[in-house]
Write a structure and sequence with these properties.
The complex is a heterodimer of chains A (303) and B (241). Chain A is mainly alpha-helical and 303 residues long. Chain A contains ten helices and four strands. Chain B has a single domain, classed as Rossmann fold (3-Layer(aba) Sandwich). In chain B, a hairpin with a 2-residue loop joins strand 4 and strand 5. The chains are: A mainly alpha (303), B alpha/beta (241).
């Protein structure tokens, strides 16, 4: 029993990573109907930014009290990562949108942007991996045989906090209302005097910022960074977003946690080489039964 | 003249939809553009709103002047903000996943709290059904209620010029007359300038001050509503004899 609960805790942690990345795919898809294939690499960039920011703070000749560096690193990383996302939108996607090209070309552009980020990183920083400095003294709590670390608790709480905040943004704020409106039908938005570009930038800020947060959390849990860390994790998070119902905030979370649970449970009882095969087969089955994902709605417009 | 469309050429890709269209709208007028399917009525309104291709045509020649200034360089949201002109699109295009109230609030993007409160009151006075359904998700509304919401939404923007694209489409005759009566009321009570595109020409001419008849991207006749209704050829082709 303890073993199962322990696995569940681990699944919650992994599910948090997937969910934090899946959100960015989902938000951007909801607003632009664009699969932003560079998003997994934005997550990677977030982890690297966290590395550079925290190393910079630690290199100052100051003895920082416990947790202060982390408290600085989180907001700075989130802001810088969201800037990277917005820059991609400005430089790569917006010009294509202006020209009114088919969405296929924007998706391919996104894919190339992702590869550029990966290989740009490789070229600039070399093949050696980077290790995130320790930002939080590791504490292990033993709850009747279940091991919890402070990092794990922080990761899971971060994901929950992001979910609540995002839910409030989407349902209670005007910008969030506009995001939902666009996902239904972007045509009438400018007729309300609302600049579409501002809503798109807002969406990229949210999605990339949250991916940056995911990057820090991931790097604190597994402090070894490499340029390709966002590729496979990004793909999985994208699949999680689709299975949950792309375009839906709760879909990204449910999909992320579901994928993590399946993966962890497969590894718990079977050789770890079975993990991805089983995980993806189960997701395939879900999509076969519900092609629009768990929370996705097939859209119909009334004319 | 408030709006002056001058020798406008516009099209979608290689296909030209408007071939040198010219017409005018004065402040406080109701002007109607009538004509058959594919005559370029919707394209004209979308071009006036400066909506972006591919859904709207690209203007290649000519000009659209608002109070003497060209609005060709503006984007649609700027037209709403600066000219106080908006469009009630064909097929209504309300945000079906938002409630009635959310649709109205979203339309008030550029406005202050006090303006919103006053405007809501006015809209619920014009369309009491919307007040009853304020909290309802708007894709569950009937076609007539959706059209009320589409007009209500346009009013919430605070615009003083409203372009309407086929407001009678898909409505039962009774609701159609109600809608046009409301438009007339908005015009006389609030001084709203209205440009309405209609296939139901008779209905449109009954409330309009003036009209233009479009045929394949060109204006083929114009005049006051009475003149157009008396015109024997128009009667035959557009008003059903």
């Amino acid at each position: 029993m303890d073993f199962i609960i322990q696995q569940c805790v681990n699944a919650l942690q992994w599910g948090s990573f997937y969910a934090l990345i899946a959100l960015g795919y989902s938000l951007v898809y909801g607003v632009l109907r664009l699969i932003n294939f560079a998003h997994g690499d934005i997550f990677m960039v977030g982890a690297y930014i966290a590395f550079f920011v925290s190393t910079f703070f630690l290199s100052m000749q100051i003895v920082w009290p416990e947790g202060v560096v982390l408290a600085f690193t989180v907001p700075v990383t989130v802001i810088l990562t969201s800037l990277v996302g917005v820059t991609l939108e400005r430089v790569a996607y917006r010009p294509l949108r202006r020209k009114g090209v088919n969405r296929l070309y924007v998706v391919i552009t996104a894919l190339m942007c992702g590869l550029t980020l990966e290989n740009g990183n490789l070229a600039l920083l070399g093949a050696s991996r980077k290790a995130l400095p320790s930002l939080l003294e590791k504490q292990i709590y033993d709850l009747g045989g279940i091991a919890l670390t402070n990092v794990k608790i922080m990761v899971i709480f971060t994901a929950i906090l992001v979910f609540v905040m995002l839910h409030l943004i989407v349902t209670r704020t005007k910008a969030g209302m506009a995001m939902r409106a666009v996902s239904w039908d972007p045509f009438a938005l400018p007729l309300m005097g609302i600049p579409m570009d501002r809503i798109i930038v807002f969406t990229f800020i949210l999605g990339s910022g949250i991916a940056g947060l995911g990057g820090i959390m991931f790097a604190m849990s597994y402090p070894v960074l490499d340029p390709y860390m966002g590729a496979m994790t990004g793909w999985k998070a994208f699949i999680a977003a689709v299975v949950g119902g792309i375009g839906e905030v709760k879909g990204a979370f449910v999909g992320g946690f579901l994928l993590a649970f399946v993966e962890i449970m497969v590894v718990a009882f079977l050789p770890s080489t079975f993990r991805d095969l089983f995980a993806f087969s189960i997701l395939l089955l879900i999509l076969w039964k519900r092609p629009t994902g768990i929370f996705g709605m097939p859209q119909a417009t009334k004319i | 003249m408030m709006i002056r469309v001058e020798n406008l050429y516009a099209g979608y890709g290689k296909i030209e939809a408007l071939h040198g269209l010219s017409f005018e709208v004065d402040e406080g007028e109701i002007v109607t553009l009538i004509g058959a399917n594919g005559a370029g009525k919707s394209s004209t309104l979308k071009a006036m709103m400066r909506l972006a291709p591919p859904e709207a045509p690209l203007v290649s020649r000519g000009d659209i002047l608002f109070k003497g200034k060209s609005i060709l360089p503006l984007e649609a949201h700027k037209v709403v903000e600066q000219c106080k002109m908006t469009l009630v699109p064909e097929g209504r295009r309300i945000f079906g996943n938002l409630t009635v109230m959310e649709n109205l609030h979203l339309a008030a993007w550029t406005r202050s709290k006090e303006e919103i409160a006053g405007n809501l009151e006015r809209i619920f006075d014009l369309f009491p059904r919307l007040a009853e359904r304020a909290g309802q998700q708007s894709d569950t509304l009937s076609g007539g209620e959706q059209q009320m919401l589409a007009v209500g939404r346009a009013l919430m923007t605070g615009c003083s010029v409203i372009l309407l694209d086929e407001p009678s489409m898909g409505l039962a005759p009774l609701l159609m007359y109600d809608m046009f009566r409301t438009l007339k009321r908005l015009n006389t009570e609030s001084g709203l300038t209205i440009v309405v595109v209609e296939q139901n020409a008779r209905l449109a001419l009954e409330v309009a001050d003036r009209g233009y008849v479009l045929n394949t991207g060109e204006i083929v006749a114009q005049g006051s509503s009475e003149e157009l209704m008396r015109h024997s050829h128009i009667k035959e082709v557009y008003l059903g004899g």
